[in-house]
Amino acid sequence: MANAGDGTAHGELTDLAWIEALGALDPNDRARLAAHLREGCPSCLEALRSGNDVVAKLAHLFAPASPSEALRARIERASARRTPEGGAELRRPPRRVRLASAASWVALALAAVFGANRWLDAERARGELAVEKARRAEEREALARAETRSEALVREHAELNALLRAVATGEARALALAGEAGNAQAFVQENRLVLYVNELPSAPAGKTYQAWAIEGGVPRSAGVFDTDAAGYAQHRNALATDITADAVIAVTIEPAGGVPQPTGPIILAQR
Fold it and tell me: Distance (Å, rounded) from C-alpha 18 to C-alpha 46?
């Protein structure tokens, strides 16, 4: 191994090992380092391996870029040595200065790798946080929809109970409607009509279902509605005047928005 007697400090050889990883040694220094490494110095071998790891990581982080022609020419002019006739020859920096510069470059490279890794960790953490926030937002929206649906079912249940009580006391009439597809339960109380529709497919595009109260052969519109994906609908409508006991309740299919008088086929009719 190298010792103080041969004029080369071991610390300098370790620096040479780092610089060799960067491919920046001149032939003489490379030969000296190779001879030293053949002796099996563990610290210098580790320095060379560590330097190679840094260079490999930097190669993944930074894409190589070729200098422009103008920059290349400037570099060549700046690095050209002048002859004694043209002026003083540019001198090579002292070895210790070169080693210190290379060591600084390696330190900067390590800092760049560390900083890039920390940045990637931060980006990954931000991504995971965004996913978690989105998941929680979806859960809140689902809970809000469930609460809204629950409140609607409670109101519907209370209304249905009130209608049944009204039917029991004779204040309202309960009617059954049926057709080739679907069925409905209708409640008539004074001028109000309430329909609970089941198993009726959604109306085709550009169409809607329209309820009618037909009295003495004259139909009065009781509003339009459509069913959900399960074929269910709850429809309420208040007419201008009371619906008489002789009125017949029916449902037709009409153009979207409804019409003043029925034009389409009867889908549901009072039994």
Answer: 9
Contact 182, 156 (CB under 8 A): no
pLDDT over 80 (residue 20): no
Q: Give the separation between CA 101 and CA 24, rounded to whole angstroms.
A: 11
d(C-alpha 97, C-alpha 107), whole Å? 15
What mean pLDDT comes out for the span 29-34? Answer: 82
- Are 232 and 182 in contact by the 8 Å Cβ rule? The answer is no
Q: Is the pLDDT of residue 149 over 50?
A: yes
Domains (range + CATH), the chain? 6-115 (no CATH), 173-270 (2.60.40)
The answer to whether 233 and 227 are in contact (CB under 8 A) is yes
Beta bridge partners of 226: none
| CA distances (Å), origin 66, targets 69, 70, 72, 86, 263 | 9, 11, 9, 31, 78
Residue 227: both structure tokens together: 């069913």
Supply the pTM of this predicted model: 0.47
The DSSP output letter for 5 is: G
| DSSP bridge partners of 249 | 213
Specify the range with the lowest mean pLDDT, choosing from 4-13, 213-222, 242-251, 258-267: 4-13
Nearest Cα to 166, choosing from 154, 178, 176, 158?
Answer: 158
CA distance 102 to 25: 10
